[in-house]
Amino acid sequence: MRLTLPIFISACILTSNLQAQSTIAPPANTSVLFNINFDLGIPMNEFKTYNDEVAAGGGFSLFFQPSNKIPVLVGFDMAFMGNGHKTQHETLTADIVAGTTVIETLYFPMRVETYNMITTGDVHLRVQSPTNFFKPYLDGMVGFNHFGTNTSVYDESEEYYLSEEDNPLITSSQQNSSWSLNYGGALGMLVQLNENIFLDVRCAYTFGGEAEYYVEDDIENWEIEFNTVPTSQDDVSDEDIDISAIKKQSHTDMIMGTIGLTFKF
Questions:
Q1: Which pLDDT value is given to residue 5?
Q2: Which of 36, 105, 202, 233 is the most buried (most CB within 10 A)?
Q3: What pLDDT does 232 receive?
Q4: What pTM, to 2 d.p., does this model score?
């Protein structure tokens, strides 16, 4: 009896330990990395000849590591960068006439905003060091560049003659939309901040194909001309936006600098 009690207690402890170990989830065999970042696009070579402005913006990326035992990841990223912006104010007038007498003059104050945007998207194959705390990596990448220019006209009158009160946009027009392929590589470093959050610093060089685009100096001299004197919202359309600038065309090589936060799942 004296021996039976200690044996029984030992068996209970051993059984509880085995049950506890069986309920602990095994470590994940795969990883997903999601990143949000700040981006700078620096023109290079022929692109720099026509455009000496650095584009700035933000983006995100998503990477998947099929096996934590193999330091290879696949993923993609997107970046949205502004490359020039202008706001100008215009006031149009319309006379209400009875015979030869002007009864009233209507004023249509407007705000005109023009943006140059560069959008990039790339698919990546990454080789990443399996080290702790500091994880350098090397990316091979291929994707696209998109160069867009858009002008929007907003109603700033108190009466909202040409728009709705909850939506002051009168019309918008796209002056340019040009696509090109790109390819290149990147060097980067993940710095561990805690178990699942990393500081991500990366520098990429991409060779971009030919594209058409406007530069910031072009939109600084944007001229907005209206073909009719508007009296209602339907009287203003994108055909009234007359652009005098000439598009540039070149290859679009860039250095892309990125800093952001990466979350591991």
A1: 44
A2: 202
A3: 56
A4: 0.81
The CATH fold of domain 29-264: Porin (2.40.160)
Spatial separation of the C-alpha atoms in residues 117 and 85, rounded to whole Å: 9
178-223 pLDDT, tens per residue? 999 999 999 999 999 999 999 999 999 999 999 999 999 888 877 7
pLDDT at 225: 66
Q: Rg (Cα) of the chain, in Å, rounded?
A: 30
The residue with tokens 């990316």 is: 139
Given a contact cutoff of 8 angstroms between Cβ atoms, the answer to whether 91 and 109 are in contact is yes
For residue 175, the one-letter residue type is: Q
Which has more pLDDT, 64 or 241?
64
pLDDT digits (tens, 9 = 90+) for 69-118: 999 999 999 999 999 998 988 887 777 888 788 888 878 888 989 999 99
**Where in the chain are the domains?**
29-264
- Overall size of the chain counted in residues: 265
Cα-based distances in Å from 260 to 17, 42, 186, 263, 265: 43, 18, 15, 10, 16
